[in-house]
Amino acid sequence: MSTFECTCERCHLKTLFFRHITKNEIRSICTQKVEHNYEKGDVILREGDPIKNFLYLKEGLVKLSRTTGDDKEQIISFAKPFDFVSLLSVFSSESYHYTVTAIEDSTTCELDLEQVKEIARENGVFTLDLMTRVSEATDRIILDNLEIKQKHLHGRVAYVLLFFANKVYERDDFELPISRKEIAEYIGMTTENVIRTLSEFKKDKIIRIFGKEIDIVDKERLESISLHG
Amino acid sequence: MSTFECTCERCHLKTLFFRHITKNEIRSICTQKVEHNYEKGDVILREGDPIKNFLYLKEGLVKLSRTTGDDKEQIISFAKPFDFVSLLSVFSSESYHYTVTAIEDSTTCELDLEQVKEIARENGVFTLDLMTRVSEATDRIILDNLEIKQKHLHGRVAYVLLFFANKVYERDDFELPISRKEIAEYIGMTTENVIRTLSEFKKDKIIRIFGKEIDIVDKERLESISLHG
DNA sequence: AATGTCGTGTGACAATTATCATCAGCTAAT
DNA sequence: ATTAGCTGATGATAATTGTCACACGACATT
């Protein structure tokens, strides 16, 4: 699972976000960082687990979810490479408020949280960078949830399809990494209605469906539905 | 509007959150901080405004809202004293993504953002404290929205009433600081249905209503509705 | 005093969404 | 090979929520 050679110098995390970290700090983190591989479906973190590590996604795709009071799953958000997976509560809680599950084969990079905090305490510029990143990510989650909230069923389903097409795969045909049930858990509707809506989109020749394969045929139409439908 | 005497030493902001700030840093912030008073209904910050200051609420109650694509208002959250009002995007965007409006007479304390950032860069412990606070606040917003999302109309209205009773006023009779329309904008339902639901609660002797005065009579029942209704 | 606007309140009806039942296909387990 | 369980799919029906219409009072403006 863990790598033996140190590749932090080439790590995107460093070059993309943490421009203001010293060589020593990088080395200190590097010598104890651990990479983990997960297969699609594997649970990476479980709700209630103590927060010991600072995780980011190096490769793959994950979902953040939680269990509601009446034992239903609710998907909070999806995270892509270089998103911080342990971001929602990492600096404000002792334990995770949500579960992280791989929805594609994924690789995480785990750093010891105390060590990251130690660097943060010593290096304010690093911490400010980090805060900017965390802030962007939580902003995104809040805005996405507000967007979804104001839409009806059809608009919500269209929004999810466009999310995967535009933000995740950057192409109009892709394999849906989640089930209809999971779409429902994300947009707050029932599985049956998600399935029905996809069928209608197909009947109206807006998309083509082959199992989990989605092909967006009439993107303008789908965008219009996402906005006004 | 602005105060002439420096009272930062007694400021809750310092004692509560910024335990790790030096006397010099406090003084430096203090000499240029500005307090503003707002009356109920006043707009404190407007969506799209450039972010120049770091604001926190010293007294009162505010709502955070945004305008959706089809020009409807959507309330994101409410903020209480010592919440950071300019928190959602202050470190991740050039301009506000939302409007802040006083829903009770309020006082803000404004610090120059660049100066706060300067301190943050110099003082990692301070920044880590700050990040913890920002993180807690955004976590709260996300969790509240998820809670509301899984409930039906009745549960949502009950949830809002309990929010004001428990979290804001800490008593079971209070004057609702917002209109029925604003409740609707927060929970994502129509004004008519909010009014109807309040009427039903009244008919069922769960609450008493005198205009904006709310008196929760049967709190257990209301809590049960919030959870399962 | 007349007018307009806004918040509140209620009813009738339409639209949206959930629930329940059923079925087919696939896969894992025995 | 058979069963059990899960996802996907569709229809009928019920529940929930939205829309439209109207009414009333408070309040500000003219």
Automatic annotation (TrEMBL), chains A, B:
Pfam families: cNMP_binding, HTH_Crp_2. InterPro entries: cNMP-bd_dom, cNMP-bd_dom_sf, Env_Response_Regulators, HTH_CRP, RmlC-like_jellyroll, WH-like_DNA-bd_sf, WH_DNA-bd_sf. PROSITE patterns: CNMP_BINDING_3, HTH_CRP_2. Residues 17-119 form the Cyclic nucleotide-binding domain. One of its GO terms (cellular component) is cytosol. It comes from the Bacteria. GO terms for molecular function: DNA binding; DNA-binding transcription factor activity. Keywords: DNA-binding, Transcription, Transcription regulation. This is CRP-like cAMP-binding protein. It comes from Prolixibacter denitrificans.
